Amino acid sequence: MKNRRSFLKTTGLALAASTLPLPHFAYGNPQMKLGVALLGLGGYATNNLAPALMQTKHIELRGIVTGSPEKIPVWQEKYGIKDQNIYSYETLPEIANNEDIDVVYIVTPTFLHKKYAVMAANAGKHVFCEKPMAMTVSECQEIIDACKKNNVRLAIGYRMQHEQNTQTIINWAEINPYGALQNVHTEAGFRIGSSGGWRLDGAKGGGAIYDMGVYPINAMRYATGLEPISLTASHETQRPNLFLNGAPEITYFDLEFPNGITAKGRVTYADNVNFLKVNCADGNYELAPFQSYNGVSGSTSDGKYLAPCECNQQAIQMDDDALAIMNDKPMIAPGIEGLRDIQIVEAALASGRNNGERIALKQY
């Protein structure tokens, strides 16, 4: 282990750090794949992203960035990762000189997203950043600015926006097949226990509103096709000894949208819930569950059934984002998408601390 740690700290290539290599692939060539390094080898990277990368057509796993040297041989054996494509958090800047790696996917706890997304962008690599994008709007903007400055692309890991039934809901917000939209109701959450780790700590992006809040918030936005103009919120913690640094166990929030449209949401660490309901002038429709890794399905007031897709959401997401890079097309979920949700998370936290104060939302 000591030798492995020493290797991580000393790995470097001969090119000067100030020069950024050209991508090794030819954009638009369907025979080529982007290479991605996963930064952070926790549960989501291990159990979801890495297996999904075995199914992707346009991007493949070529590297890892980890602070846990003991994980390295396991990943190398399972995925055939070269020694020269292994980095620690400290040696991440050296990835600038590695032509095998085109994308760095940030999969750390939320409070570390900004730090490593900016480092990856400064190394000249495209950035995929897991949601929630960052802790604050200002951190989100720093990531966006770093990617723009370094002329690299940025995608936020909103896998649901790549999923077929969710895309139907997004389309219906534009064409209004059930008449003018009136209101939305959505809730998401699960019962967390003492093994929740950083998710129990408000200083690290914990609490239901930080960790799970972007699901119902993003759903409200894509289900209406609009940006909210104000918000009120309240918090509840049924197990105060479980949560640290002001992390709320449950948050209720109400959003106002243009045209008199309203949305009611709840995000919770106290019980299992997972639905999105949209009420319109001439009918309604829903997805339940709306944000599961599989089985997303729905129904409409006139009897339509939105059958679940037998597919890997993460594979579709990463392929879509890779193709956007290769073909110079817009990302489905760019950085501004993550920033807008974090604005609402911040407002919900503030409103709840101030007895449900109504907070006006800036239009980005």
TrEMBL record:
Ordered alphabetically, the record's keywords are:
Oxidoreductase, Signal
Q: Does the keyword Signal apply?
A: yes
- Residues forming the GFO/IDH/MocA-like oxidoreductase domain are 179-272
One Pfam family cited in the UniProt record for this chain:
GFO_IDH_MocA
UniProt keyword annotation of Signal present: yes
InterPro entries recorded: Gfo/Idh/MocA-like_OxRdtase_N, Gfo/Idh/MocA_oxidrdct_glycsds, GFO_IDH_MocA-like_dom, Glc-Fru_OxRdtase_bac, NAD(P)-bd_dom_sf, TAT_signal
UniProt-listed Gene3D superfamilies: Dihydrodipicolinate Reductase, domain 2, NAD(P)-binding Rossmann-like Domain
Query: Which segment of the chain is annotated as a signal peptide?
Result: 1-26
Q: Which residues form the Gfo/Idh/MocA-like oxidoreductase N-terminal domain?
A: 35-158
Q: Which GO terms describe its molecular function?
A: nucleotide binding; oxidoreductase activity
Any stretches that span the bilayer, and where are they? Answer: none
At the top level, the lineage of the source is: Bacteria
UniProt xrefs under PANTHER family: BCDNA.GH03377
Name-wise, this protein is: Glucose-fructose oxidoreductase
Q: State the organism named in the record.
A: Leeuwenhoekiella palythoae
